[in-house]
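User: For a benchmark we're assembling, each entry needs the component sequences followed by a predicted structure for the full assembly. Here are entry 17's components. Please fill in the structure.
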Amino acid sequence: MKNRLKVLRAERDWSQGDLAERLEVSRQSVNAIETGRYDPSLPLAFKIAELFGLAIEDIFTSPSKEPVT
Amino acid sequence: MLMNPAIRRYYRRILPLGLVYAVLLVAIVALFWRGALHGPIAYVAALLPAVPLIGTFVALGQYMVEETDEYLRMLMIRQSLIASGFMVSVMTAWGFLEGFGLVPHIVSYYAAVLWFAGLWIGWGYNIVAMRRPA
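Assistant: Structure for entry 17:
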């Protein structure tokens, strides 16, 4: 699932490790989510959204709305 | 290597189990080799090496329950599923070959050996999947 995690993280000058620490997950988890290789559960998606003060759909792009390549 | 508290607990559980397994196996094989075990004691002794092996399965289950990082938990579950699929596939294929008298009989504890080998295959798959572009 595409997302804006990398941009949001960069805006705050956070490393993947910084974000992982704030989310209480591994850096590998952040990397997997950020690169779209792993879709987080709803509770984790909410946690991410709350951390950035945004709605889930402001961070993650619904697969149905992703452009067909 | 990822070493969060759940993984550390997992290793703290399986490393002693591996040591106990090795010691028990060597000791009991030696005792059977000398013909020192008979009757009910022989049954108990023969089962003893299975106990730490079963313990490793329990430890893996405990890890899956205790792991709070859902991504790491998913990796371990996928690794275990690949191991299970590998073991069941090989045992099934071997069973048919054996049933038609084409290969020799193998003792069933090789299921555990294959499962542990399958964990390495699952680990390799996870490494490839982690590096693959989304």
